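Deliverable D4.2, example record:
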Amino acid sequence: MSPAHVLEPTYRRLKLAVTSGERPSGSKLEAMRIADEFGVSMSPVRDSLNQLVGEGLVELRPGLGFHVPPLTESELRDLLDVNRLLLEGAIGLGGQAAAEIRLDKGEGGYADRLAAAFAAIATGSGNRMLAGMVDRISERLNPLRIREDRELSDSMVLLDIVERSVAIGAAVCLEAIALYHDSRQAAVPRLITLLAG
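Output generated by the structure prediction step:
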């Protein structure tokens, strides 16, 4: 295992490269090349890649190495469905608790703000496992959400509705979650095209 003072920054940098879309969907992640680029040995890179495999952000293909998993239309639909169910469940568990969490709407871009709103809803449930799953889905969808903001005209409107709903309460929050996810399900073919482009 690599020393923490080398492993942690390597892991964070590599995770950011994957979740920001710098390493695009389907791309190969060559440990030697990454080690050279980051100025570290192979050990922390391999350890980081294996940790990201465990988080579902990287896949290890036998005989082919590490890759950023491609996001298919079917998988995107599944992720959107699961995200919606988790958020609806969070509201059911937490009632008005999400409304007590203040969002800083000035922080970050569209993808970060949407992830923060969904995290606030999930955290309001009081269920750490549920909140962790919502965070993992947000990390997996982050490269897509970055493109979504630039390419879909309703992105900022939907973000505003979701953010405002967190402060209003459960019923309005459920409506906002449904509106966002229905809109994105309808746009799945276009979103997959954006990710490939």
